[in-house]
Structure prediction request, 567 residues.
Amino acid sequence: MAERSTAAVDVADNSGDEPLADEATTDGTAEAQDTTGTKPQDTDGERIGSEATLPSPDLHSGHKLAGRYRLEECVTRLDGFSSWRAVDEKLRRAVGVHLLPADHPRARSVLAAARSSALLGDPRFVQVLDAVEEDDLVYVVHEWLPDATELTSLLASGPMDAHDAYQLVGQVSQAMAAAHREGLAHLRLTPGAVLRSSTGQYRIRGLAVNAALRGITADSPQRADTEAIGALLYAALSQRWPYESDAYGLAGLPKGVGLIAPDQVRAGVHRGLSELAMRALANDGATASRQEQPCTTPDELAKAVAAMPRIRPPEPAFTAPPEYQRTTYQQGSYGRPPTGPIAAPPTIAVPLAPLQSRTGKALKWAVSALLIAALGLGSWQLAEALIDHNKGSDPGDSTQTNPENSDNKPRQPTEPLRIAGATEFMPSGSGIKQNEVPNSVDGDASTAWVTPRYVGYANFGNYSNRKDGSGIVVDLGSVKDVAGITAKMYRSGQKAEVLAADPSASAPSSLSDFPQRLTELGTVGSDLKETFSKPVRTRYVLIHLTELPSDGTGGYRGGISEISVLK
Prediction:
């Protein structure tokens, strides 16, 4: 019988996930040397013990676990386990999955580590979502953060400035201090295990699980994690790995010189942070230049960071405004005699003198008389027209008609038709949020039919069963004359159109059942409003959505708040 962790977490909307398992290669080669003082260690590409020959689960892209986790891409295959980028089809989100056979020597410890990590629930760590033993497999499902960047990638472009390094060591040491207070250690705190989100927050992945997958233990886990944080700070300040071996894309220190302070490796390094890195690396023989006590636990390191003077972010660089032509007054030369050649003054056009002769005066009087006569004639004609109009009309009838309009009745304002029902447009036969469809026609714009969050693609995640999009089909109960439609959209930026079924249609379910195009397909704002040039005979109206707007976190989501069909 399948065994499922009671600590598993399912959430309806997840902010995404990170690049998957550590810095291991995808072709199964061993990882770089781990010098965090843990046992066993990777040594020059060879694994300790016979487990290096264990086969990893023979799975492929497209395989589905528990009927919901579809494997997409294998990113690690090592020591009898594999790590994948996958999709949780139930909640429409990307996840990461670690897989190993149920009879693997480390399967029990991996399950225990995953359950303990899930119970911690600290948002500074990448969360474990599920831990399952099923069908001779053990797998651990965790978050996938698409907007996060590995520290490995950040350091590849150069060392960090003092403020970024200060934030790194402060946030990571505080998070690990909280984990150790709950009895959890990491033991694989490498640059690949630290992620920085788009908001500048650092998150740690693989708490307890990464070490369990590799069979890593430590006699002093707090000291091991503290030294690992010191190595991260050292690399952030100097862009060098604080050991002789190259690792994680960083060059190691010169052989034979020992561990030297970061400010001796690179000029311009913050002195206080350099000393802090050496205090954390005391396990490797480093000494603090000012005789401070070494930091042997993440809590001590966090307190040492808090005791430092706060390092502020660098001032933003402002570009000088472009030069502009100053006036002589602004240049301070106003009132001074010119030093260059004197320019000729501009020629000023002199207006013509008014007509002052006898002929001119006569002409002005003639023009004035003509204007007065024209005004009098116009006023008389207007008064005569009004009198004739009043005589020919019924005094009791105040409604005016337009003789040029063949329809003597005024146009009635459009009114909403009664909606008999609404259903979700499901061209593939599978629905999205059918239970929320009544929210789109309940007369309350504060409720809505809202799609799930899709990752990667605006066209409903680019899923094959969503190639024709989705939307709401409104049923008017019988064939009616439809003069217009209004719809309040859940979010601006959706690509939508309005279609209508033939009057003879019954229970339309595909795009071909809606041949009457009432609006063109295009991006709409918060409101979709359209009045048709002539009424359309139909019973079923489709608000068809083909693409969803971004939610700002790498995902896409849309929906419809309220629909009104007008007559």
In short: Residues 1-52, 392-411 have pLDDT under 50 and may be disordered. The first helix runs from residue 107 to 120. DSSP finds nine helices and 22 strands in the chain. The CA atoms of residues 28 and 77 lie 5 Å apart.
